[in-house]
């Protein structure tokens, strides 16, 4: 039921080189002072840094070479996102990655050619709009509608929690078509009839907005050609694994902050890390982290193999990361004591990222419900 | 599409795996018609013991034990990978476990590291063939988690040593020919430096083995009392005063943090989530299969995710770059995580059984011969034995995370 993986995980020197270069770049360019500055910045990211990341090939990392990207795999991406999650890099990377998944899965050659190179070069900031006011984490449920009209479509509906929409030049979003299945549309922004209203989100390092489509008329080519539902499923699956990898990176950083505090802080003339009531929860965070990282890596490998059961691996990765990261930040705040409760302590930024991430693309209970169907029902119902 | 796991295995190893699989299937011993122990912790009757000893001898004679041990000591000098393949195939075939677990997995590998040439020649082969069974004399009534507080003394005599003291939780002592014994040789020296490590003959005079009854009502472990029991000069393993260091070697093997055992698995049934899922399809609640209960489904999947993480972790750990943050973490965590996982699995199985959990060993109506409640009770042998989970958390915190020592 779980996909078979190559024993070497398909891991190569090229993966390691990429990871090292991302790590060094972020160490230098994204110290925590920068995270704090951008958290309070109206735009929420550094366009100069974004441009540099594009030059390094990271924005178009998983876009195929034919689409103008680097054509690298999900494991490459997982390693990159792990590093970004550790540093809490503020900015539009995740939304851009999700949009790339959708474009790659549903775009025709012409559509991928039209947008891919511009996305990869950093000129066109893209995002994928998955949320709607009636929350659903599965792509089957789309309330927004696309009505066919002469020469094109009319789009109506409200998308919520859309990553970096206020800065985006392209939003890809699903709309229900009269035949009952969703199709994906690529709409360039700004556009008359599309209102983008920033949300005040819990995580200040990650900006979202509501995007209202008020009967906007788009050309026939705005509809991505591939089957929308299948493409959404692919994008979601890849999204689970991608977000899980970023969450694992965040857990790693929180573990390290908490570990260092437990070594440095003294009470009763002893380092607090020598108390088992402090030590053991930190060890439990480590255990959770290691299990979650194994799943995040394995899910990426399964997707790179195009394994038929890759969805099981991806859901497991998101499910366990959605348990482990929130618990790690809860312990992180608690074990920092009074300092942990202050704005000055960095842990609360991870705390908010963890809550946001758990509630995005399906939480643990959600994915376990779908996994249970694979495990227990014959035929599987989920 | 790139090749998958089993195809990546070398041709020779894949052929060896097929051969081992076929052998296990063809030679699986028939049900003896009496209750078999679930693990080496509860071998109580002679007939159970003889059945399991015969099985180990057969496996050894077929060439499936000690593969990675040197040929001059009864092994075959093959790479470790070969033994791993056999262990995997034994678990898959659900054949009985190998009764000389302490010899194969703890004493033997320790002797290979610290033993003299004579000791290796003398002791290793009979471990593999199950001709000589081993037990472990580490814990004492006053030295459990605080193992270095061992008080059992070994005093110098003309021809060797004399042991006086009291060991507890001595699994298989009543069937054993030898014991790995941690004893104090220098009461004046420090807590750690005063300990030495011996290979003690259980048939020495002055040895009393008294069975202890476990919470399941089963026997299998014991206390051993030594009253001036003699052992020869050559019983000493390594150097005088090196006992603590050697005991740590043994514990690394015991906890799975080091590899190199003679083979076999410690329990008959590598319990798996899949078996619990199967149980949930058979057990009923509210007149429907328990597998339809949403809360139980969620908990089964939680454990499924852990199980896959453990399995996949054994692949990940072989790629150094993917464990670069803490290369030792997965190995040091292993005993803690596996034992707690198995306990959670057995406990969940009991909940799935519902009222059926309440039928115990011996009631012919008990589902699966009461193996699930029995497994749950027995699971504490693994979360307590070999260093409790609490001690394991200290070890992981201190060795892997560099947290300050707990007093």
Summarize the structure in words.
The complex is a heterodimer of chains A (382) and B (407). By secondary structure, chain A is of the alpha+beta class. Chain A is 51% helix and 14% strand. In chain A, the strands form three sheets. A four-stranded antiparallel β-sheet of chain A has the order 2-3-7-6, with helices on one face. In chain A, strands 1-4-5 form a three-stranded mixed β-sheet. Chain A has a two-stranded antiparallel sheet with strand order 8-9. In chain A, helix 4 runs antiparallel to helix 8 and helix 5 packs antiparallel against helix 6. The N terminus of chain B is likely disordered. Helix content of chain B is 42%, strand content 13%. The radius of gyration of chain B is 22 Å and the shape is globular. Chain B is an alpha+beta fold. In chain B, the strands form three sheets. A four-stranded mixed β-sheet of chain B has the order 1-4-5-8. In chain B, strands 2-3-7-6 form a four-stranded antiparallel β-sheet, with no helix packed on it. Chains A and B meet through helix 1, helix 7, strand 9, helix 8 and helix 9 of A and helix 1, helix 8, helix 9, helix 10 and helix 13 of B.
Tally of contiguous helical segments of chain A: 12
DSSP summary, beta strand count of chain B: 10
> How would you spell out the order of helices and strands of chain A?
HHHHHHEEEEEEEHEEHHHHH
Order of helices and strands of chain B: HHHHHHEEEEEEEEHHEEHHHHH
Low-confidence stretches of chain B: 1-7
Fraction of residues in β-strands of chain B: 5-15%
User: Regions of chain A with pLDDT < 50 over 5+ consecutive residues?
Assistant: none
Question: Ends of chain B: how far apart?
Answer: 54 Å
Task: Please tell me what the overall shape of chain A is.
Answer: globular
Calculate the mean pLDDT score of chain B and round it: 92
Which keywords apply here?
heterodimer; A: 382 residues; alpha+beta; 4-stranded antiparallel sheet; 3-stranded mixed sheet; globular; B: 407 residues; 4-stranded mixed sheet; 13 helices; 10 strands
């Amino acid at each position: 039921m779980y996909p078979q993986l190559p024993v070497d995980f398909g891991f190569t020197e090229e993966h390691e080189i990429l990871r090292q270069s991302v790590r060094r770049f972020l160490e230098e360019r994204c110290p925590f002072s920068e995270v704090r500055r951008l958290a309070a910045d109206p735009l929420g990211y550094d366009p100069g840094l974004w441009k540099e990341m594009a030059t390094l090939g990271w924005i178009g990392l998983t876009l195929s070479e034919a689409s103008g990207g680097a054509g690298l795999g999900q494991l490459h991406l997982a390693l990159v996102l792990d590093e970004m999650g550790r540093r809490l890099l503020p900015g539009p990377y995740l939304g851009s990655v999700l949009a790339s998944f959708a474009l790659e899965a549903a775009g025709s050659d012409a559509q991928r050619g039209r947008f891919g190179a511009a996305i990869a070069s950093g000129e066109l900031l893209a995002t994928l709009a998955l949320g709607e006011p009636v929350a659903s984490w599965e792509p089957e449920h789309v309330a927004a509608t696309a009505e066919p009209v002469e020469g094109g479509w009319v789009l109506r509906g409200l998308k919520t929690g859309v990553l970096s929409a206020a800065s985006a030049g392209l939003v890809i979003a699903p709309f229900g078509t009269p035949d009952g299945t969703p199709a994906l549309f690529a709409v360039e922004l700004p556009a008359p009839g599309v209102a983008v209203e920033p949300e005040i989100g819990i995580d200040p390092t990650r900006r979202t907005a509501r995007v209202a489509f008020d009967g906007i008329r788009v050309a026939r080519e705005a509809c991505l050609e591939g089957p929308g539902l299948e493409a959404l499923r692919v994008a979601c699956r890849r999204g689970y694994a991608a977000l899980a990898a970023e969450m694992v990176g965040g857990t790693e950083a929180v573990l390290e902050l908490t570990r260092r505090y437990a070594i440095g802080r003294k009470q009763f003339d002893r380092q607090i890390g020598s108390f088992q009531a402090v030590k053991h929860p930190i060890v439990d965070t480590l255990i959770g982290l290691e299990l979650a990282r194994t799943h995040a890596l394995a899910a990426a490998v399964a997707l790179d193999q195009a394994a038929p059961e890759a969805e099981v691996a991806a859901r497991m990765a998101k499910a366990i990361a959605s348990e482990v990261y929130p618990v790690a930040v809860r312990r992180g705040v608690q074990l920092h004591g009074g300092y942990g409760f202050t704005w000055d302590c960095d842990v609360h930024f991870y705390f908010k990222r963890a809550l946001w991430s758990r509630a995005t693309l399906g939480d643990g209970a959600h994915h376990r419900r779908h996994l249970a169907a694979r495990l227990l029902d014959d035929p599987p119902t989920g | 599409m790139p090749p998958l796991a089993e195809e990546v295995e070398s041709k020779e190893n894949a052929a060896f795996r097929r051969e081992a699989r076929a052998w296990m299937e063809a030679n699986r011993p028939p049900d003896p018609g009496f209750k078999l122990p679930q693990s080496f912790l509860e071998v109580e009757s002679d007939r159970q013991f003889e059945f399991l000893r015969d099985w180990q001898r057969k496996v050894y004679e077929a060439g499936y034990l000690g593969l990675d041990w040197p040929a001059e000591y009864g092994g075959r000098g093959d790479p470790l990978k070969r033994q791993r393949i056999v262990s995997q195939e034994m678990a898959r075939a659900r054949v009985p476990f190998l009764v000389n677990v302490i010899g194969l997995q703890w004493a033997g590998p320790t002797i290979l590291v610290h033993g003299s040439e004579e000791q290796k020649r003398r002791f290793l082969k009979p471990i593999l063939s199950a001709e000589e069974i081993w037990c472990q004399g580490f814990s004492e009534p006053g030295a459990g988690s605080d193992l270095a507080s061992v008080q059992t003394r070994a005093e110098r005599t003309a021809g060797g040593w004399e042991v006086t003291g009291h060991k507890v939780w001595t699994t298989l002592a009543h069937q054993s020919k030898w014991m790995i014994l941690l004893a104090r040789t220098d009461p004046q020296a420090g807590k750690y430096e005063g300990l030495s490590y011996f290979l003690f003959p259980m048939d020495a005079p002055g040895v009393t083995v008294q069975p202890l009854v476990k919470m399941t009502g089963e026997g299998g472990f014991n206390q051993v009392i030594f009253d001036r029991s003699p052992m020869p000069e050559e019983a000493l393993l390594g150097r005088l005063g090196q006992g603590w260091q050697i005991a740590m070697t043994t514990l690394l093997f015991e906890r799975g943090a080091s590899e190199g055992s003679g083979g076999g698995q410690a329990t008959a049934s590598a319990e798996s989530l899949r078996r619990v899922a199967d149980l949930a399809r058979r057990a009923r609640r509210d007149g429907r299969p328990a597998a339809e209960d949403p809360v139980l489904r969620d908990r089964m999947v939680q454990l499924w995710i852990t199980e896959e993480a453990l399995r996949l972790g054994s692949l990940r750990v072989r790629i150094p770059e993917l464990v670069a943050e803490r290369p030792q973490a997965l190995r040091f965590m292993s005993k803690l995580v596996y034992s707690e996982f198995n306990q959670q699995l057995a406990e969940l199985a009991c909940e799935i059984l519902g009222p059926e959990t309440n039928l115990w060993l011996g009631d012919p109506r008990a589902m699966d011969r009461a193996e699930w409640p029995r497994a749950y009770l027995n699971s504490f042998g693994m979360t307590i034995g070999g260093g409790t989970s609490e001690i394991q958390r200290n070890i992981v915190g201190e060795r892997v995370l560099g947290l300050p020592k707990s007093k």
